[in-house]
Design goal:
Layout (H helix, E strand, L loop, with lengths): L2 E5 L3 E2 L5 E8 L8 E8 L6 E7 L4 E3 L7 E6 L4 E6 L8 E9 L3 E5 L3 E5 L2
Parallel strand pairs: 2-11
Antiparallel strand pairs: 1-3, 3-8, 4-5, 4-9, 5-6, 7-8, 9-10, 9-11
Length: 119
């Protein structure tokens, strides 16, 4: 059973760096053909893909967030991490981690974690 679980602070101050971790169980994040992503949903808005790290550690980041976003992984813990710098209240959202497979869909999702950016 594949499971993903996000963890991190629920509140971040403006200009700080948001760091979230996704812990994966049931499959190794180095398994071929799986890509590990961060997706967010601001209040009242749709889902926004932020970035992805592949099984080969290649990263892909949304152009709109590229200057502020870093995605990394720790294979010893089977985790991958999002760092979003210089946050503003517009970064307030529910943040999800998800697995994308080469079948062309996000097939497993974490439950999501609410992050508020506020002083």
């Amino acid at each position: 059973q594949v499971q993903l679980q996000e963890s991190g602070p629920g509140l971040v101050k403006p200009s700080q760096t948001l760091s979230l971790t996704c812990t994966v169980s049931g499959v190794s994040i180095t398994t071929r053909k799986y890509y590990w992503s961060w997706i967010r949903q601001p209040p009242g808005k749709g889902l926004e893909w932020m970035g992805t790290i592949s099984y080969t550690r290649t990263t892909y980041v949304s152009p709109s967030l590229k200057s502020r976003t870093s995605i990394s992984r720790d294979t010893s813990k089977n985790q991958f991490t999002l760092q979003l710098s210089s946050v503003t209240p517009e970064d307030t959202a529910v943040y999800y981690c998800a697995r994308w497979s080469e079948s062309g869909q996000f097939d497993f999702w974490g439950q999501g974690t609410q992050v508020a950016v506020s002083s």
